[in-house]
Amino acid sequence: MKQVLVIVLALFIVGCSSTSKVALSEDSFLLTSNDPEYGYTESKPIELGGFLRGTKSAGAHIEYFEGLMGPNGEKVKVTRLGSCCEFEDKSMPFGGGLLDRYQLTYEGQKKPVIIYVNLYKFNKPLAPMGFALL
C-alpha cells in the first residue's frame, strides 16, 4: 500500500500530462472559495496536512489534487515547485514549518497559477478561485 501511495505522490510531483475535461453533471457538488486570496497568498495557504500527527488527513493533498478541476471541468496538471515561505505556529511540534508551492495549469488557460499549500495543518479544503473541487 505504501508503494502505491509513493507512486501516486510521485506522479503528482512530476505532473500529469493529460489535459482532458471531466464531465460535470448538474448534480456535481463543486467547492470553490469566495476569498480571492485563498491559496494564492502565503498568508492564506490551503491547509492539506496532518501527517506529523498521524491523522486521517495524511493523504489529503493527493486526494485534493485528484479532485481539482479547471472552471469548466478541465483536468488540472499539478507541478510541485518546492518548499518556500517559512511560517511560525506554536501549536505545531517544531513551532512552524515551510509552505509548498504548486503550479496549476489546464488546457486553454491563459497563464499558469501558483498556489501555496500547508502540509502540516488540515482544514477542510476548497478550490482557489478559478478552479473547482469535486
Summarize the structure.
The protein is α+β, with helices and mostly antiparallel strands.
Main sheet: which strands, in order across? 1-5-4-3
Strand portion: 25-35%
Rg from C-alpha positions?
A: 15 Å
In total, the number of strands is 6
**For the report, how would you describe the main beta sheet?**
4 strands, mixed
H/E topology pattern: HEHEEEEE
> pLDDT below 50 for ≥5 consecutive residues: which ranges?
1-28
Mean pLDDT: 77
N- to C-terminal distance: 24 Å
* Envelope shape: globular
Would you tell me the structural class of the helices and strands? alpha+beta
Helical content, roughly?
Answer: 10-25%
Question: How many helices in DSSP terms?
Answer: 2
Keywords: Signal
Signal peptide: 1-22
Protein name: 2-dehydro-3-deoxyphosphooctonate aldolase
What would you note in describing this structure?
- It contains two helices and six strands; from the N terminus they run H-E-H-E-E-E-E-E.
- Strands 1-5-4-3 form a four-stranded mixed β-sheet, covered by helices on one side. A two-stranded antiparallel ribbon has the order 2-6.
- With 134 residues, the protein is α+β, with helices and mostly antiparallel strands.
- Residues 1-22 form the signal peptide.
- This is 2-dehydro-3-deoxyphosphooctonate aldolase.
- Keywords: Signal.
- It comes from Pseudoalteromonas luteoviolacea.
Main attributes?
alpha+beta; globular; two-stranded antiparallel ribbon; disordered N terminus; 6 strands; 4-stranded mixed beta sheet; 134 residues
